[in-house]
């Protein structure tokens, strides 16, 4: 029996494709934080779902916002990598926000 060499072999992979966008954050309460979350989700839904959705705003006063992350690792990583993006989203909603603090809940 002759094998057809023009057919490409089926490649096995462990990668699961990301088929749908993560669901948008709820904007029902109309708070500044929910508006910021909507902006972040609109710019990069995957980044929002992996990092930003886990944050919560605990204080906003005197141009400074304090966000809480669920772990020290996440707080440090977001502060180092993504604080500029968070600050840009805040400035679109509340131009008085000039600085961010990201703390861990631990």
Can you offer a commentary on this structure?
The protein is an alpha+beta fold and 106 residues long. It has 4 helices and 3 strands; from the N terminus they run ααββααβ. The chain is globular. The protein starts with 31 loop residues before the first helix and ends with a strand. The relative contact order is 0.16.
Gyration radius (Cα, Å) is 20 Å
User: What percentage of residues falls in helices of 4 or more residues?
Assistant: 25-40%
Global structural class: alpha+beta
Lateral arrangement of strands in the main beta sheet: 1-2-3
Distance between the termini: 66 Å
Give the overall pLDDT as a whole number. 83
Q: Which stretches are low in confidence, meaning pLDDT under 50 for 5 or more residues running?
A: none
Order of helices and strands: HHEEHHE
Largest sheet: 3 strands, mixed
> How many E-type strands?
3
Rough outline = globular
Number of helices: 4
What distinguishing features does this structure have?
106 residues, alpha+beta, 3-stranded mixed sheet, 4 helices, 3 strands, globular
């Amino acid at each position: 029996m002759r094998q057809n060499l023009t057919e490409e072999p089926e490649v096995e992979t462990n990668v699961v494709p990301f088929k749908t966008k993560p669901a948008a954050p709820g904007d029902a309460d109309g708070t500044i934080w929910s508006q910021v979350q909507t902006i972040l989700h609109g710019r990069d839904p995957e980044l929002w779902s992996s990092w930003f959705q886990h944050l919560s705003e605990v204080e906003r006063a005197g141009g400074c916002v304090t966000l809480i992350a669920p772990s020290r690792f996440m707080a440090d990583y977001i502060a180092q990598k993504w604080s500029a993006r968070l600050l840009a989203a805040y400035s679109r909603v509340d131009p008085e926000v000039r600085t961010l603090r990201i703390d861990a809940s631990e």
